UniProtKB/TrEMBL annotation:
<dbReference type="Pfam" id="PF00005">
    <property type="entry name" value="ABC_tran"/>
</dbReference>
<dbReference type="InterPro" id="IPR003439">
    <property type="entry name" value="ABC_transporter-like_ATP-bd"/>
</dbReference>
<protein>
    <submittedName>
        <fullName>Sugar ABC transporter ATP-binding protein</fullName>
    </submittedName>
</protein>
<keyword id="KW-0813">Transport</keyword>
<keyword id="KW-0547">Nucleotide-binding</keyword>
<keyword id="KW-0067">ATP-binding</keyword>
<feature type="domain" description="ABC transporter">
    <location>
        <begin position="17"/>
        <end position="253"/>
    </location>
</feature>
<dbReference type="InterPro" id="IPR027417">
    <property type="entry name" value="P-loop_NTPase"/>
</dbReference>
<dbReference type="GO" id="GO:0005524">
    <property type="term" value="F:ATP binding"/>
</dbReference>
<feature type="domain" description="ABC transporter">
    <location>
        <begin position="265"/>
        <end position="507"/>
    </location>
</feature>
<keyword id="KW-0677">Repeat</keyword>
<dbReference type="InterPro" id="IPR017871">
    <property type="entry name" value="ABC_transporter-like_CS"/>
</dbReference>
<dbReference type="InterPro" id="IPR050107">
    <property type="entry name" value="ABC_carbohydrate_import_ATPase"/>
</dbReference>
<dbReference type="InterPro" id="IPR003593">
    <property type="entry name" value="AAA+_ATPase"/>
</dbReference>
């Protein structure tokens, strides 16, 4: 984009942000190798790449959290602030991460002006003024949120808007959104995209990270692809078709294979019986699943699907009802009991329930199956590493080896370790909650192939997700809306009907 003044020299739009030949190493890992990125004013610029390609590392350099080993960053063609000048960085750029930086116990207004309270005489915080300022700020960006409510009450979507507003209020006009749609349902994604459009019209520029390529086509103007720490492509989104984009990301010419479907065995016995389950949030489910059957539980953000899944695996204690696995009634609210009965679990929140970041890949993969890697209380490091190597190979985990700390892996590779751990016990029942969240387009296929694989070995699988690709591997999909099962769809549903069902349309279709 450029504009010409009639009475002056050509004025070029300076890049809002630029990374110039940026290289970053972590020990022997090269996370970025001479990477360039140019983000121009008013664009929504997609940053894509496979898990471990270097996207988060580039973000940490663009936000001043890490210093590059080589190369530099500019904003509006000016050198980036010094590393210690955090306020300087905050005035230029902000990143909305998947993990919230909002403090739940404070109100929205307090979060918006954290450490910048309007003070009156004697240094006392002037609460009414603070509230008014917060309201003014949100109104200026057409954000409709009650500033007096505690931030804990905010939905994921509102929390993201508050973080964006906070960044705008300190002057930043360049916002990085790191997989912003990962925890939103279809309606939430639409609203987010609406806001992005509005803010862009008001002069805000975005860098948008997502593994959902359709989102790139929907909302972004430019796309930059990183592969194996290198910059491989920057182009207008309109000029790159999907196969070209996937090829740029993977380095291969790929047509992704369709997930093989095998109908469940007609006479197979029931393995899982969920009887009159009710969660403390009021969601209800009764369900029987056969040996070798793959059943999806689908629904939007407030459908209750995750609540019932968490009650099934013992992550939450149900208000009532029973869960019976191969004739054994599971102890309510006990994950250890579920694991002992043969449940393998990929939880929704890998940060909270999934992984211990300081431990190695091998320790994380095997932590729920000590009996498989040792005897009489002694762990055999060799057996543990062998099992971990198997996981690394099967799931194509990008890591330097079984000894690497899980905390040093990229987000998508951490998710693969969580899957590896769920599989390590050779489960009878595999419960996968949003299993491909944050996982790249190619790895998604690997993870979904796992489902077909464990089913072949006779396991029963529950897939809790609103991702159509995740649900496609299922023999049938149970749809929940507002805490109730509203329909059931056999394999072969169309995208439109399932999306409509998840949004609460077509209740009668049971
Ligand atoms: N603190 C760290 N210590 C060691 N290695 C690291 C660290 N942070 C990142 N890496 C490595 O740098 C590489 C790039 O990781 P990065 O997190 O930038 O990838 P990504 O593209 O964001 O992936 P994902 O899509 O999975 O989030 C990976 O090999 C990762 O293991």
């Amino acid at each position: 984009m450029s504009s010409t003044g009639t009475d002056g020299p050509v004025v070029r739009d300076r890049p809002v942000a630029q990374a110039v030949n940026v290289t970053k190493r972590f020990g022997s890992t090269v996370a970025l190798s001479a990477v360039n990125l140019v983000v121009r004013p008013g664009e929504v610029h997609a940053l894509v790449g496979r898990n471990g390609a270097g996207k988060s590392t580039l973000v940490s350099i663009l936000t001043g959290l890490h210093a590059p080993d080589d190369g530099h960053v500019t904003f509006d063609d000016e050198a980036a602030p010094a590393a210690a000048d955090r306020d300087g960085w905050r005035r230029r750029v902000a990143c909305v991460y998947q993990k919230s930086t909002i403090i739940p116990t404070l109100t929205v207004a307090e979060n918006l002006f954290l450490n910048r309270h309007t003070r009156g005489y004697g240094g006392l915080i002037r609460w009414p003024a603070l509230r008014r300022e917060a309201e003014k700020l949100l109104a200026a960006w057409s954000l409709d949120i009650d500033v007096r409510q505690p931030a804990a009450m905010l939905s994921v979507e509102q929390r993201q808007f508050v973080e964006i507003a906070r960044a705008l209020s300190v002057g930043a006009r360049f916002i990085i959104l790191d997989e912003p749609t990962a925890q939103l349902d279809a309606a939430g994604i639409n609203r987010l995209f609406g806001r992005i459009d509005d803010l862009r019209a008001q002069g805000v520029t975005f860098l948008f990270i997502s593994h959902h390529l359709q989102e790139i086509y929907e909302i972004c103007d430019q796309v930059t692809v990183l592969r194996d720490a290198r910059h491989v492509l920057t182009a207008a989104v309109a000029d790159v078709d999907r196969p070209t984009l996937v090829a740029a990301m993977t380095g291969e010419d790929v047509t992704l294979p369709q997930v093989a479907h095998r109908p469940s065995l007609a006479g197979a016995p029931v393995r899982l019986s969920v009887r009159d389950l009710a969660t403390t949030s009021g969601a209800e489910l009764s369900l029987e699943v056969k040996v070798g059957e793959v059943v999806g539980i689908a629904g939007g953000g407030s459908s209750g699907k995750v609540d019932v899944a968490e009650a099934i695996v013992g992550l939450a204690r149900p208000a009532r009802g029973t869960v019976v696995l191969d004739g054994r009634t599971l102890r309510p609210g006990s994950v250890p009991d579920a694991l002992a009965a043969g449940v393998g679990l990929v939880p929704q929140d890998r940060h909270r329930e999934g992984l211990v970041p300081a431990l190695s890949v091998a320790e994380n993969v095997t932590m729920t199956v000590p009996h498989r890697v040792g005897r009489y209380g002694f762990i055999s490091p060799a057996r543990r590493d062998a099992l971990a190597r198997q996981t690394i190979a099967d799931l194509a985990v990008k890591t330097s080896g079984p000894q690497e700390s899980v905390g040093d892996l990229s987000g998508g590779n951490q998710q693969k370790v969580v899957m590896g751990r769920a599989l390590a016990g050779d489960p009878k029942l595999l419960v996968l909650i949003a299993p491909t969240a944050g996982v790249d387009v190619r790895s998604k296929q690997t993870l979904l192939d796992v489902v077909a694989d464990v089913r072949r070995r006779g396991a029963t699988v529950l897939v809790i997700s609103d991702e159509l690709d995740d649900l496609r591997v299922c023999d049938r999909v149970v749809v929940m809306f507002a805490g109730r099962v509203t329909g059931e769809w056999a394999h072969g549903w169309t995208d439109n009907e399932l999306v409509a069902a998840m949004e609460g349309v077509g209740f009668d279709h049971v």
